[in-house]
Specification:
alpha+beta, four-stranded antiparallel beta sheet, about 30% helix
Length: about 180
């Protein structure tokens, strides 16, 4: 695996982490330090293929990209693009998103944080308030639990209330057990 590094008009394609650290260390504006060096080594050893961006100062970054290109020309012409296998796609998918669609009929505890529209006493104006709602419901999966909770709330709160995505951080669920 090779590393492509770019800082403004300075760029290189290196074969290993040591060469990458030497190149970055040769640019005085970046200021190589032990934390940056450790982070670059960790990125190079990981199985993550997305580009890594490092902030130097406000609106100034340098990037590192993992590539299988052997030469700069191959990299520039995108001849050695890394193909993600189905196994890697599964590993990169968030475990909570995978769990969301797993089918298991039973009781679920769903916890949702949504924006509820309520009238402010005294002013008569409406305002959004963060509202947490926790419920136990019988469902077939995590997404079914989400849908049941949102359906219940839509019939009981103002239509302008906003509900988060089931895949986001504002919805959590736990499988409590199978139903009889």
């Amino acid at each position: 695996m090779n590393l492509y590094i770019r800082y403004f008009d300075k760029e290189t394609l290196v074969n290993n982490v040591e060469q990458a650290i030497d190149f970055i260390g040769s640019i005085p504006e970046i200021g190589m330090n032990p934390e940056l060096e450790a982070d670059i080594r960790e990125y190079a050893d990981s199985n993550v293929y997305y580009p890594k961006r490092y902030k130097i100062r406000p609106r100034v970054y340098f990037i590192i990209i993992k590539t299988e290109a052997a030469t700069m020309i191959d990299f520039k012409e995108k001849r050695a693009v890394h193909q993600v296998s189905p196994v890697e796609k599964r590993e990169l998918t968030s475990p909570s998103i995978v769990r969301l669609s797993e089918s298991a009929l039973g009781w679920y505890e769903g916890d949702i944080l949504f924006k509820r529209v309520m009238q402010v006493p005294g002013t008569g104006k409406f305002q959004y308030f963060d509202t947490r709602f926790v419920a136990d419901c019988k469902a077939e999966s995590g997404i079914d639990c989400y849908n049941r909770i949102v359906e219940y709330l839509r019939s009981r709160v103002d239509d302008r209330s906003q509900f988060p995505s089931a895949k986001g951080k504002n919805f959590k669920f736990h499988f409590l057990g199978q139903c009889k």
